Amino acid sequence: MKPIFIVISIFFSCLISAQTKEVLFLWPNEVPGETEPKHEPVQTDNTSGDVIRLTNITNPSLTVFKPEKPNNSKAAVIVSPGGGYSILAVNKEGYEIAEWLNTLGYTAFVLQYRVPKKRKGALQDIQRAIRTVRSKASVYNLNPQKIGVLGFSAGGHLSALASTSYKKDAYPKIDAIDELSSRPNFSMLVYPAYLDKGENKSISPELEINQNTPPFFIFGTMDDRYGNSPLVMATALRNKKVPVALHMLSEGGHGYGLRKGNIAAKTWLDLAEIWLNKMVKSRALAKYERTINFPQVIEFPKRIPKKKDVWVFMMAGQSNMAGRGFVEPQDTIPSERILTINKENDIILAKEPLHFYEPKMGGLDSGLSFAKSLLKDIPKNVSILLIPTAVGGSSINKWVNDSVHRDVKLLSNFKEKVVLAKKYGTVKGILWHQGESDANKKKIPKYNKNLAILFKTFRKSVGNKTLPILMGELGSYSKKKESWIAINNAINKYASKDRYISVVKTSDLKDKGDKLHFNSEGQRMMGKRFAEAYIELIKPKNK
């Protein structure tokens, strides 16, 4: 009787635990395509196998499971229980899985998607769930580029569908959350079903796999009636050169979750833990993800505005101005009033990333955010032209001496771009962020002197001695904290002596995990602060 008592104890402890957890409802108003009013899920009378079965879900939600001891990965996993799209085995393939993830230090979210027989609604729910978790990354101390999915049986099919259908919105956008990507950063399938509904039991046609499909972990058994699904999915991923780890045991059946008594249950747990830890902590994931949302099409303006109506801003410095943040869909929405250049010096509509000097490293910078914010406070007839010139790793000494750095002759390139800028508009200011390469005892004492030389040269090339310059502080997250503080002190001291220079504070902004570069949220916020600082700088001062 003792083993039975233990199982029953676990069953009720999971139920009570889930009932006391925070719940995030996915749809603030109407649920798209849902005809029934929102109400509590219905628990079926069938509790065989100590399984809580939910059905008739009309108000989809996420139950939040936070670890007592978070690991350092800042990764999260959205768990989708199975149940043939008729019910959700919410404890065995949901709550219990989330509790296990918590023991590994991961934040978990158990998804209650719509059932029964509402596959389209279920896809809408998981897309919205991924976006919701991503939108709350700062609330739960997560990295928005480390949000994965883990699905069982039908939930495995749903997770695979979310991982391959992210380019097509399953529902009309309703708010700012829907501007975020619904693409998971990794996908884990355990005894998945319905993946082989193509011709001759090939990959299901709704699964559109391409080179940008996220990495997969797949586990199944050969005696599972759905055992062909893991095989065809892994083959399709392999054919598209998507990273995939496939594990198949000879026996184990279907629907075992993580419960004891089945070798498959223990095996997938051990393998998944190793894969997950490696995946979210490796730099390979960030490298694989970097260009996922980069624009596929260059768009040219319908017309180039008159020269008198174009305000030009030069972007100079090193990597945090060149951009190392993760580009999301919201960063690639163009405006006819925000222009930039490509590497051929053509005028194009601005989409992130703006810088093109380091194609293997570039990412989100603060330029587009700056321009979008600035548009709110400048005349409606004015367009903004952003000219990128920043190159990662460039010290201020290299700028002053016009050195070649990463195939770019820094100061000469800046001057050439100023000539180009004047052809199309009036240079109204410079956005500058630099100093990481000079944050050492040898270079710090010379920093202010070099700033004075360089900024004088910048202004001379533009032909404006009072040209506004906006400087961003270094972040507060560096391992070389004292040196970075010294650079910031030098920046602020220099700015205090020049009426036309403003310094943007960054002490509250976060890094992207490398203690060197601002994350995407930080880049966007810095852009907004650059815009606010510029408006303040050009305001008429009382005499």
TrEMBL record:
Signal peptide: 1-18
Matches recorded under Pfam families: BD-FAE, SASA
Key words, A-Z: Hydrolase, Signal
InterPro entries: AB_hydrolase_fold, BD-FAE-like_dom, Carb_Esterase_6, SASA, SGNH_hydro_sf
Stretches assigned to the Sialate O-acetylesterase domain: 311-535
Segments forming domain BD-FAE-like: 63-169
Full protein name: Sialate O-acetylesterase
